[in-house]
User: What shape does this take?
Amino acid sequence: MNFTLSTRLGAVDLLGEITGGGGYDALLPHTVTLEPFGVRCRCLSLGKLIEVKRAAGRPKDFEAVAELEAIEEERAKAES
Assistant: This one.
């Protein structure tokens, strides 16, 4: 269900199901629409991304969580 693609712009993970989050239908309410490179796509919200990375429990995910939490804090400051 999961694929990792190597592109000239970098690696892209296409996941059919995520540990701690489930499949598409379960994750859909936790998405935001972005337009990278002019293409509309749904991406996990920052909070949900942090949650599923914690649930995955891999060392690389724990490293990313610290960075994502810093981004979340900066966004909260900017919004207040």
Observations:
- The CA atoms of residues 8 and 37 lie 14 Å apart.
- The radius of gyration is 14 Å.
- Residues 59-79 form the longest helix (21 residues).
- The helical segments are 24-27, 46-56, 59-79.
